[in-house]
Design a protein that fits this description.
By secondary structure, this protein is an alpha+beta fold. It is globular, with a radius of gyration of 17 Å. It has helices spanning 14-18, 32-35, 64-78, 92-98, 130-133, 172-191, 206-209, 211-214; strands spanning 4-7, 52-56, 82-86, 105-109, 124-129, 136-143, 146-153, 157-165, 195-201. The strands form two sheets. The chain has a five-stranded mixed beta sheet, covered by helices on one side. The chain has a four-stranded mixed beta sheet with strand order 2-3-5-4. The protein has a single domain (4-9, 57-214), classed as Endonuclease/exonuclease/phosphatase (Deoxyribonuclease I, Chain A, 4-Layer Sandwich). InterPro entries: Endo/exonu/phosph_ase_sf (IPR036691). This is Endonuclease/exonuclease/phosphatase domain-containing protein. It comes from Rhizophagus clarus.
Length: 217
């Protein structure tokens, strides 16, 4: 399972980026210790910068306490400012209850898809460190798989953070509708002059498709 964070700019071709098929290379053998809780030294962050993460939690109805504890440890270790969590399978009230274990964060969550024909009910959330949560102006759940949160900062700086879960190709119709919704939301975001970031699970290995974006010095 591969998780990605994508920083975007206003010249990015969203349609060609998001609509590519998934990469068959399996990188699921990365250990949890190496991929999440590595203690390797990191470079100091520049002033006024953020740290953003994205995790597919694969449902929180089972082993929820253990997963929330791991999430708390990960956020603390990596000093996460914005933590996107996708495929929670939980309603917003349930996520709010579990988020009490992460007292340094405020959570914003989407609704759930209760349709009987879908394989996954979805559910996406964004955890925002409390010192930054005061800058939240509004949040919108576009669907159970797409959430956006707007933050306003001094100097008329507007930041919109998207959290998205794009279903795998085994559910192509739902995948296509989620992609269409995301592209429309991104178009509106560009028109309104927001800086913006997308985090989530695209169900593709983006570093294999677009090495230029992931291997820059």
């Amino acid at each position: 399972m591969y998780h990605c964070v994508l920083m975007t700019d206003n010249n990015f071709n969203y349609d060609s980026f998001i609509r590519n098929p998934s990469n068959p290379i399996d990188i699921g053998n990365l250990s949890l210790q190496d991929s999440l809780f590595s203690s390797k030294p990191t470079f100091p962050l520049p002033p006024n910068s953020f740290t953003i993460s994205s995790l597919n939690i694969n449902g929180l109805k089972i082993h929820s306490q253990n997963k929330i504890e791991q999430l708390h440890n990960f956020f603390s270790l990596k000093h996460i400012s914005f933590g996107g969590v996708v495929d929670t399978h939980l309603h917003p009230k349930q996520m709010h209850f579990l988020s009490k274990h992460l007292s340094n964060y405020t959570v914003f969550s989407s609704s759930l898809d209760t349709s009987q024909h879908v394989r996954s009910s979805g559910g996406v959330s964004l955890f925002i460190e409390n010192s930054l949560a005061s800058h939240v102006h509004t949040h919108t759940f576009h669907s159970s798989r797409l959430l956006s949160v707007d933050l306003y900062f001094k100097g008329n700086i507007k930041l919109r953070i998207f959290v998205v879960y794009i279903p795998p190709t085994s559910d192509q119709a739902l995948r296509d509708s989620t992609i269409d919704l995301l592209i429309q939301a991104l178009s509106d975001t560009k028109r309104l002059g927001f800086h913006h970031t997308i985090c989530g699970d695209f169900n593709m290995h983006l570093d294999q498709f677009y090495p230029i974006f992931f291997n820059q010095p």
